[in-house]
Amino acid sequence: MTVVRWFGFVSGIVLVLTTWSSVIRTLIVPRGLPSTLPRLIARYSGWIFLFIARRFDSYEERDRVLAFQAPTYLLLLLSTWMLLFLVGFGLLLWPFVVSLPRALLESGSSIFTLGFASTHETGPALVQFLAAITGLVVVALLVGYLPTLYASFNRRETMVTMLQSRAGAPAWGPEILFRYQNVGLVDQLPALYSDWERWAADVSESHTNYPMLIFFRSPHPLRSWILGLLAVMDSAAMYLALAPDRAPKEARLCLRMGFLCLRDIATFLRIDFDPDPLPSDPVDLTFEEFESGIERALAIGFPSGRTVEEAWPHFRGWRVNYEGVAHAIANIVSAPPGPWSGPRDNLPGMQIIPQRPADRTPDDAAADLRPKGTGAGH
After folding, report:
1. HSE, side-chain direction, 13 A CA sphere, residue 177
2. How confident is the model at residue 248 (pLDDT cuts 50, 70, 90)?
3. How far apart are CA 20 and CA 326, in angstroms?
4. Do 173 and 134 lie in a common domain?
5. Looking at the structure, do residues 135 and 252 belong to the same domain, yes or no?
6. Apex 18 CA angle, 148 and 25, nearest 5
7. Region for residue 120 given its phi and psi (left: phi exceeds 0; alpha: psi -120 to 50; beta: otherwise)
8. Are residues 201 and 130 in the same domain?
């Protein structure tokens, strides 16, 4: 029995050190180091939430269920760490107390700083002090971690929310060109691309250091950070393909930073991608979809130095750099099934087209017939 207890002691050391490694990698080291435990919790909790979400028919109902996935993951991660520390320090106490249940009781009393169970000897007291310090530090780290996490989330969502009036909901690249041309703001597109270049750099840094942010959903069911970035990149690629002489240099910088951001996140999520694809490589988007998406912007006078047929291979040459990664991430996070954003495994055949708000004026007699209190368009 003594040999078993000391084997448990060694196992406790390994368990405590392994758990501390997971805590340090996840909460302290600003580099997004991979850790097996958070990955496993994210994977299995994600499966459970997707299983529940599939019970509902509409996308909005599924989104309400999936909105709890990331917060639940955080609670499960903290609970798992605390449980592993409790067991680990319990095994360390086992050789010094009468039984394993008593050791686990003293470990829990120390980790949660309750102090109702202890053995007043040097060996157990040292382990109990280490357990108490561990419990306090882990909780303090997570409490300090949450403000940073939500600050990054708020920065991300501010830009995604602003994009809704420019790209619709779900966000769509051709819609950006149409709306900017429709209100005479094409000259403001360089500012949009410059803002989203900085946004992509911020998301690349924050979402690899705090990867649970990848799964935090927007407050509005039809908004999504990944669809927002994809839409802005598509609009930049279309501008460069249609009017290379007029397209702003900011469009190229936005595209470059955009697909670097997507690739950084894909590397963390272990999504395979070609780091140097050829412009002639195939893409999932078809020419017919490209032509259909852009024709309305061209119809109202969006500047173009090329025909749609001439622009297509240039657009495809840009999109091949980011399409596969963007579609894979959108599928993993169950983003709204907007156009040009790829299929969803849990939303087969579903697609939501962004609706343009009605352009009403005081002279529009139909405006008086609109019921009071109805929601605005996207």
Report:
1. 28
2. very high
3. 33
4. no
5. no
6. 25
7. beta
8. no
Give one word for 33, left, alpha or beta, with left for phi > 0 and alpha for psi -120 to 50: beta
pLDDT in tens, 317-364: 999 999 999 999 999 999 999 999 999 888 787 888 887 777 776 766
Pairwise CA distance, residues 225 & 76, whole Å: 24
Please check whether residues 180 and 323 belong to one and the same domain: yes
Contact 120/93 with Cβ under 8 angstroms? no
Domain that holds residue 252: 168-332
| Cβ atoms of residues 230 and 172 within 8 Å | no
Helices 122-167, 189-209: crossing angle, 10 deg rounding: 160
**Site of tokens 């040009």:** 340
pTM of the model: 0.86
Q: 328 with 186, same domain?
A: yes
Q: Tell me the three state secondary structure of residue 58.
A: coil
227 inside domain: yes
What is d(CA 176, CA 364) in angstroms, rounded to the nearest whole number? 26
How many domains is the chain built from?
Answer: 2
What average pLDDT is seen over the chain? Answer: 88
Residue 359 lies in a domain: no
Sequence-ordered list of residues with C-beta below 8 angstroms from that of 104, at least 6 positions apart, any chain: 86, 87, 90
In a domain, 370, yes or no: no
Question: Which domain-ending residue is among 103, 126, 143?
Answer: 143
Q: Count other C-beta atoms under 10 Å from residue 101's C-beta.
A: 11
In a domain, 376, yes or no: no
Q: Which tokens belong to 232?
A: 């802005």
The answer to whether residues 182 and 297 belong to one domain is yes
